[in-house]
Structure formats: C-alpha cells, structure tokens
Write the structure tokens for this entry.
Amino acid sequence: MGTFKVAIDGPAGAGKSTIAKAAARQLKFVYIDTGAMYRAVGLAAVREGINPNTDIKEVEALLPKVEIDISHGDKGQEIFLNGENVSKEIRMPEISVAASDVSKIPAVRQKLLGLQRSIAEKTDVIMDGRDIGTVVLPDAELKIFLTASVEERAMRRYRELCEKGIESSFDKVKRDMEYRDKNDSEREIAPLKPAEDSVIVDTTGKTLDESVEWVFNIIRESREK
C-alpha cells in the first residue's frame, strides 16, 4: 500500500496548523506545515534588509543561500534556516506578512515545491498550506479546505500572540490578515482557492476540540473507503 496524503488548505488563521497537527498526532501521520517554509524564506529576506513585496530580484538572488530543513521530534515540527532553529522567530507578525509576499514569487514556490513533494512520497502525511490540494499534492487521497470568518480568524491569531507575549492589537492582526487574504487569493501563481474535489470545513463558531474531531473523522472515513 502506498502513502496516504492529506492536503489541508485555507486562509491565514483558519486553524490549519493546530488542527492538522492534532489530527496527525492521533493518526500517527507526519505533519508538514508548508507555511513555515515560506516564513523561513521571509525571515531570511527581512534579515537581509530586503522588502519581499518590492525587491523581488533581491529575493531571487538570495535563494541559493537559503537552506531550509525540517525535523520532527518531541516538540513537533521544527524549522531550520541555514542550520539555525528559527521555529520561534518565524511566528512574529512581521514575518507573517513577509511570508505572504515571498509566496507570490515563482522562484520561491519552485524552490520549496520539490522539498514538499519529496517528503510526501516517503510517508503518510498531513500537509497544510495555501496550494497543497491544487498544486503541491494534486493527487492527494483527501483534500480539505479549512476556513472561518475573518473576524474569528483574527481573534484566534490575536489571542495566540497574546499568549506568546508578542505585542500587537486586534485591529492590526485583522488588517494583516485581510492583506494576506487578498495577497494569497489574487496572486498569479498558485492562488489560494479550494481544489475542485476538496471537502469544505468552516470552523466559524466551533471550538478547537470540535474542529479537530470533525477533521479527524473526515480523514478516518476517507482512509476506510
């Protein structure tokens, strides 16, 4: 039997990472957060003083010097940028915006695509991102599009930042999220949209536990078919 691939797509703050991570743990699948890879590229650009929204050529020139590795251990997925563990740094709000900007650049997407696909060929995976079901794993056995209202997504992200001690405001988080939604949906390369054969899961008004249970049941039923 081959590997079983689950693609989970959706906008920023929909709970993809948290829900996918929990479901992967229950199913003993490997969880891959592709957004973290784009965040790592965004972090590399910001550290070099590059504005990835306007300095596209500079981002492209930087790519050969960007080495991204993923490890899975007791702490879950950890992201390494040129050998440095940047799992915490990539979660800063300004890096979220940089990640959205670099994701519009075809050369960045091409660099990460091969890495993402190679992981999925080796093991059962739940991979989340913006274009997993449409571009990265179009042959995935199950595709889920996870969403929620922008107000609810912004509130979730704001609370998450507060818990981590990262200073921000709800209005700024909501503005950043709307910017990312527009960026992700309107980019020419691999725009954010549900795959034609995806299951739409709207978690507005649902608790985290309810959402995890819902997604877990969808995956379990799909595997049993």
